[in-house]
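Friendly challenge for the regulars: who can give me the structure tokens for this chain first? No prize, just bragging rights.
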Amino acid sequence: MNLQADVKAQRAIGSVQGLCPFAGVIAGLLAGAAYLGAQMFFWAAVHDADAWAPLQRISAMLLGPDDLPPSADHSATLAGMALLIHFGLAMVFGRFVDLAVRGHVRMDAVLRGLGVGVALYAVNFFVVAPLASPWFEDSRGLTTLLDHALFGAVAVAIYLQLRMRRPGWVV
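First reply, four minutes later:
Bragging rights claimed.
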């Protein structure tokens, strides 16, 4: 069997066997952890602000704007709400990565994952935030864009490992 026929066969298998959402969900959770860690680090290092600021902004989506920085509140409620929201969204976004990369060669999958991360940044910070959570607007910038690209790249790397059926270039 030649390489092109093998790629087509693997894509067909991927589209049938790829109905299980767990690889995308797990990839999203782990990529979400990488994103949150990077976001907290960069927020403290680049913006010279409290590393908890991203958690405060996320929790304010449900708890209200009273929990926004520069609040000194570092409560378990705030952290728990932020983590619940963040990782819930990360699981959904991991499925987006799953759907975007399934059946594609690895390099194409990586580029698609980066694209998903950048698209999430654009939608979250230029469409959703102005309408629902305007306090995220000052989080726009290169570091947040890079963190979203990191999410996409990490999600793809984990997804590829979880979905690996056999050696080769197609997932």
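Residues 24 and 98 are 5 Å apart (CA to CA). The radius of gyration is 18 Å. Your move, everyone else.
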